[in-house]
Design goal:
Blueprint: H1 3-28, H2 36-54, H3 58-80, H4 85-105, H5 107-110, E1 116-117, H6 125-144, H7 146-156, H8 158-163, H9 168-194, E2 196-197, H10 204-217, H11 222-238, H12 246-260, H13 273-297
Antiparallel strand pairs: 1-2
Helix pairs in contact: 1-6, 1-9, 1-10, 1-11, 2-3, 2-4, 2-9, 3-9, 6-7, 7-9, 10-11
Length: 298
């Protein structure tokens, strides 16, 4: 495979891991977090520091980084998930900006604004690809599980779900922590791919980009979210030659989808054997009708 293409796809697969985490939060439970990139930063910096300063192996460093992010996510999420959806986005936005400011000020430990350098490059195309596939499968199983169905019920009508005996806080918390774990893991992969991280990489705009990707592909579809992440993260990379226009093209695509396909590219459609069979049946039926029409005209 071409080196440039492999590098682009590696970054795309890392982004997909974070986006499927956002899908769990936004697509399944209807919560919006503008601080998800902060958990990516926690994963990236923790794993990087453990390897650089303590000489730890990448595997235990990754596990500790993800667990630390989940612990911090629990401290932030426990009081936050009880709030209204709009307040959740504000609280997580404040948390994200606080983490970025903290990383900027910790000059001795994190390198401050100059960033953390010297991280060994361990993330390969294969690791990123396998990790993305595992993350997608994990979220797909979560979506089809009892907890996933409860998340969807909460998203559609939280009061009705609560009236039916659903522990809304517990379900939201579980979804939030799964989202945090996936995002933190993507941060670890990102750090060991770039070999360098700095606070500006993990601002609220990155969190907003992930939400846009979810809505672009279809907020109610895991397949759509993955497609949105793949399209909107790969497109700017392949359009680097059109430096002056690539962000315009990106913006136009997003606006077209929002205006003409509000439910996203795929809406609620999922890539399942049943849906694929139905799709092929429809295509076969269309071709049969065209063939019958041609034979009739003949």
């Amino acid at each position: 495979m071409n080196t440039l293409v492999a590098n682009i796809l590696t970054q795309v697969f890392i982004t997909i891991i974070a986006v499927v985490g956002v899908y769990v939060l936004t697509g399944l439970t209807g919560m919006f977090s503008l601080g998800q990139a902060a958990f990516m930063a926690i994963g990236a910096y923790t794993a990087g520091l453990l390897v650089i300063r303590l000489g730890m192996h990448i595997v235990p460093a990754t596990i500790i980084a993800v667990l630390l992010a989940v612990f911090i996510g629990f401290l932030i999420g426990y009081p936050t998930v009880r709030l209204r959806k709009d307040y959740i986005s504000l609280v997580t936005l404040g948390f994200g900006e606080a983490i970025a400011a903290l990383l900027n000020r910790m000059q001795t430990l994190t390198g401050g604004a100059a960033g953390l350098t010297g991280i060994p490059r361990k993330t390969t195309f294969t690791i990123a690809f396998v990790s993305a596939m595992v993350a997608i499968v994990l979220v797909a199983f979560f979506r089809s599980s009892k907890f996933g169905r409860q998340c969807i019920a909460i998203r559609d009508d939280e009061l009705a779900a609560k009236a039916m005996g659903t522990n809304v806080t517990f379900i939201k918390m579980r979804a939030f922590l799964l989202s945090v774990a996936l995002t933190a893991y993507s941060g670890v992969l990102y750090a060991f791919y770039l070999s360098y991280v700095d606070p500006t990489i993990f601002g609220w705009k990155k969190s907003a980009d992930w939400i846009i990707m979810v809505f672009f592909g279809g907020v109610n579809s895991l397949t759509g979210s993955v497609l949105g992440a793949f399209t909107l993260s790969a497109l700017p990379q392949f359009l680097r030659s059109l430096e002056s226009y690539r962000f315009v093209i990106y913006a136009v695509l997003v606006l077209l989808i929002i205006n003409f396909k509000p439910s996203g590219l795929l809406g609620e459609w999922e890539l399942t054997p049943q849906n694929i069979k139905k799709l092929f049946s429809k295509i076969k039926m269309k071709f049969s009708k065209k063939e019958d029409k041609r034979n009739g005209n003949a």
